[in-house]
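tmp note - PilT/PilU family type 4a pilus ATPase
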Amino acid sequence: MDGRNIVEYAYKKGASDIHISDFVYLRVNGELEKTEWNKEKALGFIIESFVDQNSKEILEKTGEVDIGAGISDTRLRINLFRQRIGISASIRIIPSSIKDIKHLGIPDVIYELTEYRNGIILVTGATGSGKSTTLASIIDYINSNMKKHIITLEDPIEYIHKNKRSIITQREIGKDTIDYKSGLRSALRQDPDIIMIGEMRDSETMKTAIYASETGHLVFSTLHTGNASKTVERIVDSCEGMRGIRDAIASQLRAVISQKLIKSAYGRSAVFEIMKNIPAIENMIREGNTSSIENAIKTGKRYKMQSFREDIERLYRKGIISEEIYRAESEVLR
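out:
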């Protein structure tokens, strides 16, 4: 089977990732499956089809490179890297269509969050938890229902957005702008209503994102954190030394949507923790009492907040997850 056929087969099989190492592996419903496909042909197809001279030079110099690409109607996020046995690849398969918010099971409070005119809304979770999919769905909802200028900064571009009611400008790090910091500073001069940052990777990006929200923009981004309290602490730790960082976060953070994927009757389903920055939580952030945020979420149902445990219970009641998975996931949250 050649490289093109491997990608097409993986997409049809519902694989989220292809790994080319000593063998070719697929990740399906969170589990790795070893194949007997020819790894040389698969890797050769990827390099010949998607790696330009600039990317080859980056790979040679740094030992790794990220590439956004497309084949037929499928988007690919490709990471090529050197390791002990030579060049390997990890390829994330991105669905050609953007899923509707309701299809993802995101609570309806998300519609309210899109009405904010400024501030920061974060989507958090581990690698492979579906953050990019959630963020793309939110942007697509805004694009379909509001008249906004949306600028995205991504590394690489994953989902392709076409202008609907909004204007969407998608810029790729390394191609259209040098880095997140430069792209974000430039975006502030491009009359945006909304800025979407693919990932807040460093303190400079975080600081500039806070500044963007303070100057009247709504900023969406992702972080590799497990829940709301850890998200706040991650930003504080990353921006250590920035004067008034807790005050800035307290005043500019609008919500944190944390998510993870668990085994279900449909393969895997997302569960969500929703934190809205109500006055009580705002004070907790200012005072450094982030350990109390979890309890505030549990008692914040009237504000449409929810904990992971509540969402897991919802899936169990609906028969979407088994009792075994329900008990296992509940134990993890203790």
